[in-house]
């Protein structure tokens, strides 16, 4: 696995972050705080929170500067519009495409879906393209009834008028406290300034990524370049999320962009597959939110050959690159879990098929007992075996193997003698460096492989969420 740091070695201090988690277990570069008041117009996005480390899997792609604006045809902006309850961190984000972009979406399975989720579902049921994604932080606009849905429509109409496009070309996302409608007047009044701030630069992408964060300690943005059919194409993305993270999907928002040329049906299949391999395989606390939404736009401006079959080499190349971008963002969300001190990566092999391996991996990554043991630096591998066993996938217990990092704990269903102090040190060092704890599980000789990502469960998680609205 290649780790690509998306921030400089000397990171800026955050003026708005989860202060409650900045204790002895927080990464050193997250413990800083600037108390001086600075005008929002005179600071860059990184002045508010630093960028996340992006854990890209290895493959035939190169990480490049920028996020959603790296692919051809896209612009982005993030500004402060007065929607947050406190602070002046940017809270309005906009991503636009200069052409009709092939659009796809993946949404929460929560029945109490937020108004923007319902709106986007309705739009994508009747339209295959979109031109803009408007995102607000501060209010989730979930459980807000008919009035909340009407707010969504009016915000879309107002932006469409400014951008000279159809209302159905505008998609929306919201994040914040559930039960609160959007501060519509503040949002609509800020739209002219937001549109005027649109830029195809890295700065435009960075500001958009910061503006969608809530309790996040870091912003999540990445872009890569690869070749599809011999033609260079780019895939970019941004996401937010830190708590209420559990499939399907998580309290997370994501926007993915590409300049690859692909038909609508194929693009939607690809996005669904990548979401299942990434955002649907992360967990922080087991809660599924009302607002989870990933929107993906393909401009086609790379002049690559049109992908119209999932079985083509071009489709496989684009799928792999899309997987990499979404997994990079997803792992950054789990890494940034509320109160977390480390990322947990669970790899499962030997299952009958990918879906079975993925389900087992997620069972381990989401186990509160496993997560708590890792926070306590306790190599209690019995909790791992337990979570594998209740995942709902049948396997022969006598073929179960478990390893923690490079330390084998179980082989062929039998416990192995191991250096407990060394295993505990492995967990401690990962926590001290905000690194990665790797768990490997094998359940047989099948071809199915899957991964899931989570984080440890600390005392600070309870503190953060016990006082979320107070």
TrEMBL record:
A Pfam family it matches: ArgJ
Leading EC class: transferase
Self-association and partners: Heterodimer of an alpha and a beta chain.
Pathway, per record: Amino-acid biosynthesis; L-arginine biosynthesis; L-ornithine and N-acetyl-L-glutamate from L-glutamate and N(2)-acetyl-L-ornithine (cyclic): step 1/1; Amino-acid biosynthesis; L-arginine biosynthesis; N(2)-acetyl-L-ornithine from L-glutamate: step 1/4
GO MF annotations, alphabetized: L-glutamate N-acetyltransferase activity; L-glutamate N-acetyltransferase activity, acting on acetyl-L-ornithine as donor
Cellular component per GO, a single term: chloroplast
UniProt binding sites for substrate: 214, 240, 251, 338, 465, 470
Family recorded in the similarity comment: Belongs to the ArgJ family.
Catalytic function, reaction form: L-glutamate + acetyl-CoA = N-acetyl-L-glutamate + CoA + H(+); N(2)-acetyl-L-ornithine + L-glutamate = N-acetyl-L-glutamate + L-ornithine
Source organism of this protein record: Musa acuminata subsp. malaccensis (Wild banana)
Full protein name: Arginine biosynthesis bifunctional protein ArgJ, chloroplastic
Active site: 251
